[in-house]
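Form P-L/3: holo structure prediction, ligand S-adenosylmethionine.
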Amino acid sequence: MSAASKKGARRPAPAPAAPDRPGLAARLVAARLLGAVVETRTSLDGLTDPKGGHPGFRALEPRDQGLVKAILLSALRHRGTLERVLAERLEHPLPEGARSLRHLLHVAAAQILFLDVPDSAAVDLGVAAADGDPRNRRFKGLVNALLRRLAREKAAIAPLAGETLPGWLRERLVASYGVPATEAIALAHLAPAPIDLTVKSDPEGWAARLGGRALPTGTVRLAALDGPLTDLPGFAEGEWWVQDAAAALPARLFGPLRGRRALDLCAAPGGKTAQLAEAGAAVTALDQSETRMRRLRDNLTRLGLQAETLVADAASFAPDAPFDAVLLDAPCSSTGTIRRHPDVAFTKDAAEVEKLARVQARLLAHAAKLVAPGGTLVFSNCSLDPAEGEAVVEAFLAEEPDFHLDPVRPEELPGLGEAIDAQGRLRTLPSMLADPEPRLSGLDGFFAARLIRRG
Ligand SMILES: C[S@@+](CC[C@H](N)C(=O)[O-])C[C@H]1O[C@@H](n2cnc3c(N)ncnc32)[C@H](O)[C@@H]1O
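OUTPUT (holo model):
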């Protein structure tokens, strides 16, 4: 099919004022938001936030909002596959500047290949979206033919694992982990993440009640939800909170905390604060974001847990007395969470990773000053990149003779021995905790190291 063959088309008429066709507004918003993610690197969570999100998204009915999110998650998770299958079916590449055309094709193709949307609706609304945009109207015949062909041929189309990683990320992962491990990570990125819960007690009992399974690390894992999470038993009672199995590990590295003073720097929305409080520590939770801190307070209220909360910059926080336990769950590129947030692969890049590594080094150097002699400092984040993990800790230990690494022991991480490296640092990858059922498989990529201040 040829995009170039449309060259001689007449100048298109202006777009119709409002997309009143059922379902069209949702597709137009999806294409617009896809553009915002891949062109201006805006996070999907921000764009789809119920209060501060994109006005077009907020104007949609809740059902259409759900559809837009599902389309975008698929279109981003499978962006490499969509690029390939569309390119294979075009005689000539799409014009370089045809960005909005590309987005609407991806939105329609994602529905055809990956969602439970009737092909006819995906095709017709894709064509209508092209027809309604003066920039794309002359391509509507092409859109129609291309999408119909995809619908006919979809049984023979399968995503290839390597396609889930954009070039910059693949390059960095191969340099850090080698080709086979990178392929395994890419394969894990094909499936959405399970729903993981941290329970206050009795993981086996909660797993049975919620129809999930208890992982050896104590997390309760659900493959999918039938309705809103908030309707599940135990939510209103504050018996559990949503937290990836890997994100639940750093706070556990402190061991017993009853009666000890713990500081959670970079605390919001508070998954780890809740763990520290539930373990019996007197917790101070600090975050620089007032909005996120509000969420932390709401979460603690639901869970019936207490912590002192402060909105402040962790890089300059100066408490009256040092703490027995300090957790620095530092801001990072979040590449370990791509199964949940496939936009991260497109909103971050190598320069951002390096910049965040410098921020982490600065925060870690300051956090160290807040640890009492003999106290424990845990540094963690959800990046897959050793530049934001292993390298930060190595540079820190080279500068700070007052601290030493306390290796994590296999018995502390039942079922996850492979996540402890030769030096005793924690490094989880989405390819670990593999399960034959993809929706029950894997965990976020996380790094954590336990550092002790000499007494
Ligand atoms: C990865 S999130 C923390 C997740 C949290 N520990 C949890 O388990 O729910 C990083 C947090 O760091 C906060 N942050 C980033 N830079 C900061 C700084 N200089 N001082 C305090 N908080 C900061 C962000 O607002 C964000 O809430």
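COMMENT: The chain is about 40% helix and 15% strand.
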